[in-house]
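Section 5: illustrative case.
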């Protein structure tokens, strides 16, 4: 298969911000009086901020008004930003930088396709913006994953067809988004959670462009 572009989810693929999102949601759940487990957190990965809150409230069996929900997401985000404030380029996950460099050398385009409104700030902290030809994030997308909007906008920005793209994702909702968009998808993480991906890798160490051609 001829791959012209790679679209990367950010949280959990390039950097492990997923743990900070989890901690911030867990604190909110505790304030609301219920336990929130890491297994339940899987449902929030890749999902937009408000959609994540709705899942959390459903898990805790809690009703809230729109105003309360806005307050809750604002508080959660404030806490999340405190967690990531000190983030440095050394938090980029192992093998990611060499892989991004190899894409550049091979002339394969790259974009970020993230649900996060914090994506621009994180990319700046990690000093990786020069690797990407486009950044599509939660500020420009209206339909959350598993809707393919974020990746279709990425393909459009890169001027390639969906069938010429490979998406890298750590969330089940993101895998569905890629497949719904007619793209190939590589799951980064555990195969039990990412079983619908075309290929699952545990990380980018020893992962090379050659493997893209096998898809
Ligand atoms: C995704 C994360 O990348 O972004 C989700 O996987 C998160 O956990 C979503 O809820 C929205 O992020 P943010 O930074 O806009 O709250
Ligand atoms: Mg993710």
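Designed sequence:
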């Amino acid at each position: 298969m001829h791959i012209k572009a790679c679209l990367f989810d950010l949280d959990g693929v390039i950097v492990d911000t997923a743990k900070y999102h989890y901690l911030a949601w867990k604190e909110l759940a505790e304030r609301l009086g219920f336990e929130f487990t890491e297994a339940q957190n899987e449902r929030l990965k890749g999902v937009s901020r408000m959609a994540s809150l709705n899942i959390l409230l459903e898990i805790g069996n809690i009703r809230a008004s729109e105003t309360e929900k806005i307050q809750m997401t604002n508080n959660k985000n404030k806490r999340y930003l405190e967690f990531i404030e000190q983030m440095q380029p050394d938090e980029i996950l192992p093998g990611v930088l060499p892989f991004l460099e190899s894409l550049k050398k091979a002339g394969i385009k790259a974009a970020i396709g993230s649900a996060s409104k914090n994506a621009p700030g994180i990319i700046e902290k990690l000093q990786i913006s020069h690797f990407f030809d486009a950044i599509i994030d939660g500020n420009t997308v209206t339909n959350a994953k598993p809707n393919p909007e974020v990746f279709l906008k990425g393909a459009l920005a890169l001027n390639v067809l969906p069938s010429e793209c490979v998406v890298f994702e750590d969330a089940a909702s993101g895998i569905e988004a890629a497949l719904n968009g007619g793209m190939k998808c590589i799951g980064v993480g555990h195969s039990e959670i990412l079983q619908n991906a075309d290929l699952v890798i545990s990380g980018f160490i020893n992962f090379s462009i050659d493997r893209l051609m096998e898809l």
